[in-house]
Amino acid sequence: MSAPSENMPIAAVVPRVRPLLLRHLPYFIGAAILVALAATMRFDGYIHNILMQATTFAIAVFGLSVVLGLCGQINLAQAAFFGLGAYAVGLGTSDYHLSYWLCLAGGCVIALLAGALLGMSTLRLGGHYLAMVTISFQQIVTLVMINTIWLTHGPDGVSRIGRPDLFQSAQSYLAFCVAMLALVGYFVWHLSDTRVGRAMRAVRDNELAAGVVGIDVFRTKVSAFALSAVLGGLAGGLFAGGFAYVSPDQFSFAESVVFLTMSLLGGVASPIGSAIGTGLLILIPEWLRFLKSVPGLYLAIYGLSVILIIRYMPDGIWGFVNIATERWRAQKGAPPAAAPLQLMPATVGGDTVLEVSGLSKYFGGLKAVDGVDISVKRGGVHALIGPNGSGKTTTLNVLSGLYKATSGRILLDGTDITNMPPHPAVPIDDGVGKRGNRRRAPGQQDDRQGWRRGADRTRDGSADLRRARRASQRIDLQFFLWASAIDRNRARACRQSDLASA
Amino acid sequence: MDLALQLLFTGIGIGAVYALVALGFVLIFRATNVVNFAQGEFSMVAAYLMVVFAVDLGWPYWLSFLLALAGMALLGAIFNLGVYYPLRHRTFLPVIIATIGASILLANSVLAIYGPQPQVLEGWFETPGIQLGPVYLDSQYLLIIAVTIVLVIFNYWFFEHTMLGKKLQATSQDKEMASLLGISVSTMIMITFIYSAVLGGLAGLLVAPILFVSIQMGSTIALKAFAATIIGGFGDVAGAIIGGLALGIIETFGAAYISVPYKDGFAFLVLVLFLIFRPQGIFGERVAEKA
Predict the structure, then answer these.
(1) Which of A484, B46, B128, B249 is 20 to 30 A distant from A301 in Cα terms?
(2) Residue B33 within a domain
(3) ipTM of the assembly?
(4) Alpha-carbon gap, residue A77 to A135, rounded angstroms
């Protein structure tokens, strides 16, 4: 049993929140109205096709908003995943007379497997690799669609694609797709506030920092990528049922670019932005049909808009609107001041939390850290000082698991964590975490969320979070190492036990 | 055996083109830490410029060639100012997306102007080739190999033995330090872009008589050149050249012995295999990322 916290008073001042279901009720009511409209309103065939296309494309673009917006990984093969889903439903229902549902599920599974494999082979490497590999994958899928004529009918495409018995009419099928869109939209919208979603955002903002607060960076990236592939496959399956005909040119690299432009234009970080982008890029081409008479002009304009959006509107239309409303709100009134930080002097004593003996780290022949012994008692505050290049940061990096120690032992509350990578080192009841240079701390979000992700990993989230929140309001040290120890009840607080300032 | 020798020659010829484009990739990557996804488009645009000057206007080949390369230098400069420079302080993702946008813009602008019909560019020589024992040496392939060898030597001399080359190297290694030593980093990056565009353009001009001059040639070449850089070891000049040659040979043999329609697939297969089993490439060393 650990001693209760003394250096940091804890007051429960977390604002009460309304239950989730109640807060999200307006969304479901809106979605239900949309589905009802889609099911009852009379459209002519042309409008119906546009709606059908917009609905299914939006689901695929939601996939991009997860992988690109939330997790910061690029996917230039969304049309290929879309195509996998579409061909699964197309070939399954027309050639093999399988059930629509089975084919839709099969298409999602194929897309999932392809996405996961692709991600696992590449995501340990930098983003350039992923960009090129996804383009390559896109090209291979197109090649296969065109050339394996015995399976895919080649350039002729697949026709007479079936729909589920329940939604045989075009109208009901559209309503079904809108309902799927609403469900996926809810899921994607809500995802960013879940533990997985926060992990993805942390990875996007700073992989290194995400790693040291205990996130398995690789697994997070692979899941984001696979999720985006599944949404692509699902959208493709719905698309195939809607149009009853698919051909390889609908799933080419150019279409992947269209998906990318849609998500960038609307705002890659949110499903609302994705929906806006998709709607605009489906409607605008319909209004400007005359441009289509010159081959290439259309995509040339897309290419130019990608450059311009990236340069002038990096957060897309929705991000732009958000920033504008935030500014307007900020003018109306300053946000309520945060509670002042209260720190009581730490009382040193009790058991030893962190025990480091004979710690060394060599880079080849360079001895950066050589035989360091540190012993930190619970509640103790220590400064690690030394001239430039004396190995302060290296010591911290070895402690947090970013570097592998050459020799020596690190004991954290009796557990040997010397050879643990950063992410399992944190979620054991006791955590060693490092805040790196503040410049590189998670960027787009305020510190609270950065801390929150750390707190996610220690099992007692809320107390830790409150503590972290207050600490982060003031402390602006370059390096901030905290060793937190939570007792077995996991209800007590942890404390920072080591501070090092440069 | 005769066929194998013939294929080897062809493979080296086409591999040399990949190597040239890969070299452009590597130079820009080293200078800016960004992969330029429009690198292949440089080859495509150069080939079209050549078609405009030599075929449409009927100017002499040597003049058209020089004008096309001058055009590429200009394009490299515009590319730097319009695409890379404004985003230089952002993370790599926006820059990558912008270069992809530029690639789409370039390819489709050419398509809009010139139409989808592939253009034909005559070879450079009157004599189509030489018979050497069992192997027929096509003169255009010979030219490509010769130019690549000359360029590799020039590259070495330029980067190791001239002041400008050393400044460029310094910039690519450490921008802050370079600027402290009085090197104008933005000028060096500008020169890198121009040089890469000219290299890419040169590759396009050389390969144009073999392939048709088409809109797709850019992206095809770029993907293979990228695969070549990975096979060779990212950011490594010698690796890019070896990788390009290896890829050209693999692809030629694959097309001859396995399947022609999937010719382009072999490059990607090799790429994925390398990424899984040896992501640092043949020559690359795994560099520990500093925290």
Answers:
(1) B46
(2) yes
(3) 0.79
(4) 6
